[in-house]
Amino acid sequence: MTSVKHGANLFQISRNYNFKKEEIMDFSSNINPLGVSPKGKEAIIKNIDSVSIYPDPDYLNLKDSISNYCNVSKENILLGSGATELISSFIKLLNPKKSLIVSPAYSEYERELKKVNSHIDKYFLKKEIDFKVNLDDFIKTINSDDYELIVICNPNNPTGQAFTKYEIEKILQSTNSFVMVDETYVEFTDTDIYSSSSLIDDYSNLFLIRGTSKFFSTPGIRLGYALISNKAVHSNLKQNLDLWNINIFASIIGEAMFKDSEYIHSVKDFMAKERDYLISNLSKLDSVKVYESKGNFILCEITSKYITAKDLYDALIKDKIVIRDASSFEGLNEYFFRVCILNHEENELLIKKLREIFFS
Fold first, then answer.
1. Residue 4 domain-assigned?
2. Where are the transmembrane segments (predicted)?
3. Domain count of the chain?
4. What's the pLDDT score for residue 328?
5. Residue 3's pLDDT is what?
6. Exposure of 123 by Cβ count < 10 A (0-12 exposed, 13-18 middle, 19+ buried)?
7. Residue 2 lies in a domain
8. Where are the beta strands (DSSP E) in the chain?
């Protein structure tokens, strides 16, 4: 099993290299660099004295905001202290004897499945076909065994590959297994094509997870939510979640930021433009293969083999640039690295430093 990593530990890096945290350009953490929604921030400031009261245990205003944002019934919404709490709670409740994970993948899926002693198989995305999925082959694999749970990160981290909602629907139609789709990164792409939220009402075996850490740049508030129409599962999960598991400020900022359409559109436009910029310029580097991505991160492979991802990390850290050595993801070797999208000036500097390394 791979070690649990969630991007760089800026506190540790600043101590090890005697850098100020603010000076570090963190291309390893998949967080929107534009920062939090202005309307969300304003709501926190205006309601700072709410620290002295309990949140609404039903979180009706927050659920209304999410309902309108995702265009789903609020009765199908579950709230969690981050997406990880919902992943853990769902797996614990389902207690699947056999599970299938699309891999490489976020290590928490396997970690939580091991806690319930699930037998875990993996459907590995292959670099030979640019980590794209042969849907018929995937469905054939699902139906080849008695899997109770299929785990899909969509878009996939770290490869950037994504299923369309039509492909997810075909999977749902082809199996009685529960399908858990983690949409942590889906808002960085076209949600009309890639989000499965519109399928919730029609498929009781779909469990969809969203977080706010990445797109809304709010990892500190620990707000996640899940969508599911299966009333029995919904009820059991709700009973097992802690009362007031969402703190008052997470609720307040959530109510506001999901309605901040100007901010949401500006983030989508910025990320699409900068992703295109990075992919275009990374593709021009000698000895680097760049894989298509629908996320806010880009997977790259060093093809010359004269330098590893760790070597590249060590070379860039001197300039206060942190990338992700992707060899910690099962199925990827020591020549894979991943970069995320930062502000344009930082993206330009990354390309400049990589050119110096690969053209030297």
1. no
2. none
3. 2
4. 92
5. 40
6. middle
7. no
8. 25-26, 77-80, 98-103, 119-124, 149-153, 178-182, 206-211, 224-227, 288-290, 297-302, 321-322, 324-325, 336-340
